[in-house]
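#help-structures
NK: newbie question, is this the right format to request a structure? protein is Ribosomal protein S27
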Amino acid sequence: MPELLSVALVCAGTLLARDCSRATALDVIVAPVRTPVECVMHGQTTAAAAGLPGGDGRYLKITCERRHPGAEPLRTADRAP
């Protein structure tokens, strides 16, 4: 199981980049990745495919996080209920 997560945060344009987090984001897209380079590339690709950020006073912030030990696997879109 990959140890890294690519996290794409869509935040309001009025929010400072340093304050943009999972808690303050308008939308969050998370995916498992294997390397830091793959993390950045995947975050940008996922956001572009989803049509984000797309103006309207929003911006995209990509972060890479380590998966927490014991975390449950992420559900993919094709497996969502």
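mod (FA): yep, format's fine, and the tokens are attached above. The chain has one helix and three strands.
NK: thank you!
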